[in-house]
Specification:
The complex is a heterodimer of chains A (159) and B (294).
Chain A lengths: L3 E2 L4 E2 L1 E6 L6 E6 L6 E6 L1 H8 L16 H6 E2 L6 E2 L22 E2 L1 H8 L3 H18 L3 E2 L1 H11 L5
Parallel strand pairs in A: 8-9
Antiparallel strand pairs in A: 1-2, 3-4, 4-5
Chain B lengths: L19 H16 L5 E5 L7 H14 L4 E5 L7 H4 L7 E4 L2 E3 L1 E2 L5 E3 L13 E2 L10 H14 L8 E5 L4 H10 L5 E6 L3 H16 L5 E11 L6 E2 L5 H10 L3 E7 L1 H8 L4 H4 L4 H14 L1
Parallel strand pairs in B: 1-8, 1-9, 2-6, 2-8, 9-10, 10-12
Antiparallel strand pairs in B: 3-4, 5-6, 10-11
Helix pairs in contact in B: 1-4, 2-10, 5-6, 6-7
The chains are: A alpha+beta (159), B alpha/beta (294).
């Protein structure tokens, strides 16, 4: 899918992705000549169709996790099916993919509480992805607000 | 007013930065990297349901392991997963590591990955998280993605053989051959009946079209040896399987006799090749293993 700025006859570039949390998605594209922006709005079914391919519109900012599609799409998965190395509700989790980095990301009590609402089948993976994202962003404490940002920027609908 | 002409998609080469194509290509590259460490991918398929694909896959995996080979078993039957149980790994936990999910060790040390390990309970059907009412639109997309991840995101390590147990349906074989265009071996399991011959014939056409280099038929329930006198009798007219092999020019690689013990042992997570290695059925699987690795 491409968006063409008709006036400039130029393909618009992906600029931003937003997931408001209701299953819909907004992907913003911008013309690099006239700077006009358009937002592609998808309904929950269209959003699902894209995520069902195991891809994120706009690309990935953190590495994908093993069996990310399965873990994020199977409903009613077995609670203890996966062991993710460290307790998912612990203070900090080292990402599985990248090499160790200095510092760590703390999780506020509110963020931890919210994380608990994520099914345990996928919780460890979600925490690792969010933590990796926070490291990338230089964020030292994960809060419900930063979780919202992470979800929107990472394209993790429903997590 | 002059009609304006807007350039078509194919006339525009500029990359939008949406990154979707690159991500799909990266998925394919990851799968290829994983499979590069596997000497032989053995697809167990049929097209026809109820012919014993999973039983053949489990016993073949165990027979290969008994030959001292490193063997994996991927249960691609997401909606009716049974391979894990047949290899004795029900309820095992999966460890997530940097390079993938570690498969659990089943009978004979076979490395197993199955949807059965992920579902909440024995009677829980596979359900996907999806907006209500339109799952039919993308369930096959999700299923194909899940099979891809089972193959690419499981840390199989170096294997001599990875057995892939497919669900019934010619379409499942077709999808797998699109994911893995050049599998080492495809085994088409059939029973010696006209109906099976009719359905499995479609799978033969498919593997020929896909130019699969090595494939053969496995006739399951091909006769029964009396427990008391050893006399061989046929449960079905054996002719359809033999005729299918001859007419299609496909080698009949194995004739697995029917024996209640095969089912009983397999239900208990002990393939017959391990439980009764001297039985006629076990010998048939050993011979099949030898042909697969030839």
């Amino acid at each position: 899918m491409k968006f063409l700025c008709v006036d400039c006859d130029r393909v618009m570039d992906f600029a931003e992705r937003q997931l408001p949390g209701d299953g819909t998605m907004a992907a913003v594209f911008r013309c690099d000549r006239c700077e006009r922006e358009v937002a592609m709005l998808t309904n929950p079914m269209e959003t699902r169709l894209v995520s069902g391919l195991g891809v994120k519109v706009g690309g990935r900012t953190v590495p994908d996790q093993p069996m990310e599609l399965v873990r994020s799409t199977v409903a009613e998965g077995r609670e203890d099916a996966f062991t993710d190395g460290e307790a998912a509700d612990g203070p900090a989790v080292a990402p599985a993919g990248p090499p160790p980095r200095p510092g760590s990301v703390a999780w506020s009590p509110q963020a931890r509480e919210r994380l608990q609402s994520v099914p345990s089948f996928v919780r460890g993976m979600v925490k690792r992805i969010y933590t990796e994202w926070a490291w990338e962003q230089g964020i030292v404490e994960m809060t419900p607000e930063t979780m919202d940002r992470a979800r929107a920027e990472l394209g993790m609908e429903g997590m | 007013m002059a009609e304006r002409r807007i350039r078509t998609y194919s006339e525009v080469s500029h990359d939008t930065g949406s990154g979707i194509l690159e991500q799909v290509e990266a998925q394919g590259a990851r799968l290829a990297r994983r499979l590069a460490a596997i000497d032989r991918l053995v697809v167990v398929a049929s097209g026809k349901g109820g012919v014993g694909k999973s039983l053949v896959a489990a016993n073949l995996a165990a027979a290969l392991a008994r030959r001292g080979l490193q063997v994996g078993a991927a249960d691609a039957d997401l909606n009716g997963p049974s391979l894990g149980r047949m290899l004795g790994v029900a309820g095992a936990k999966l460890e997530v590591r940097e390079d993938g999910v570690v498969p659990v060790r089943g009978a004979g040390g076979v490395r197993v990955m199955s949807m059965d390990l992920l579902l909440a309970s024995d009677d829980a059907p596979l359900r996907w998280r999806e907006p209500e009412g339109a799952g039919f639109a993308w369930q096959s997309v999700l299923e194909t993605g899940a099979v891809r991840e089972f193959l690419s995101d499981t840390d199989w390590g170096e294997l001599d053989a990875l057995i892939v147990d497919l669900p019934p349906g010619t379409d499942k074989l077709q999808r797998l051959l699109q994911l893995v265009p050049d599998p080492g071996v495809v085994l088409l399991v059939t029973t010696p009946t006209e109906v099976a011959r009719f359905v499995v014939g479609k799978s033969i056409a498919l593997v020929r079209e896909a130019r699969v280099r090595r494939f053969g038929l496995v006739a399951n329930m091909a006769g029964h040896a009396c427990e008391h006198c050893g006399r061989q009798t046929s449960l079905f007219d054996p002719e359809p399987a033999v005729r299918m092999a001859e007419e299609a020019g496909v080698p009949l690689w194995a004739r697995i006799p029917f024996h209640p013990a095969i089912g009983a042992h397999t239900d208990a997570g002990r393939p017959i090749v391990a439980a009764e290695p001297d039985s006629e059925a076990a010998r048939a699987f050993e011979e099949l293993a030898a042909k697969v690795m030839a």
